[in-house]
């Protein structure tokens, strides 16, 4: 990509995982620290890679899906950001991926909201 990690003027493919439902022991509040009751999460992941229009790189998202399936067995994590950063790291373990977006939401956290969460958009460093 000639000196740039991400070129917004170039064609790209976006591979997506949408609405992946998983659980994790996550949260800073005392009421989120019940070992027997993990927090329900919904995760969206976008993996972006450049394409010349004729050749489309193969992006296998199974590594990301497998990691999300492992979250219920992980030790307690205070922040959603920590979980999202794990997925960002996995996204960049796929050589073709030049940018990614990871959103992690808690759908059951507030009665007045559909969900609360975080989103990270990251570009691979050159």
Name a few traits of the molecule.
GTP Cyclohydrolase I, domain 2, alpha+beta, 126 residues, four-stranded antiparallel β-sheet
What does this structure look like?
The chain is an alpha+beta fold and 126 residues long. It has one domain (12-123): GTP cyclohydrolase I, C-terminal domain/NADPH-dependent 7-cyano-7-deazaguanine reductase, N-terminal domain (GTP Cyclohydrolase I, domain 2, 2-Layer Sandwich). The chain contains 2 helices and 4 strands. A 4-stranded antiparallel β-sheet has the order 1-2-3-4, with helices on one face. The N and C termini lie close together (9 Å). The model has no long low-confidence stretch (mean pLDDT 90).
- Give the terminus-to-terminus CA distance: 9 Å
Our estimate of the beta-strand percent is: 25-35%
How would you sum up the global shape? elongated
Indicate how many domains the architecture comprises: 1
- Number of helices, where a helix is a run of at least 4 consecutive DSSP H or I residues: 2
Q: Biggest sheet, open or closed, and with what strands and sense?
A: 4 strands, antiparallel
Q: Write the CATH architecture name.
A: 2-Layer Sandwich
The stretches of 5 or more residues where confidence is low (pLDDT under 50) are none
Structural class: alpha+beta
Give the SSE order as H and E letters: EEHHEE
Q: Mean of residue pLDDT?
A: 90
How many DSSP E strands?
4
Give the helix level as a range of percent.
Answer: 10-25%
> Might you state the CATH topology name?
GTP Cyclohydrolase I, domain 2
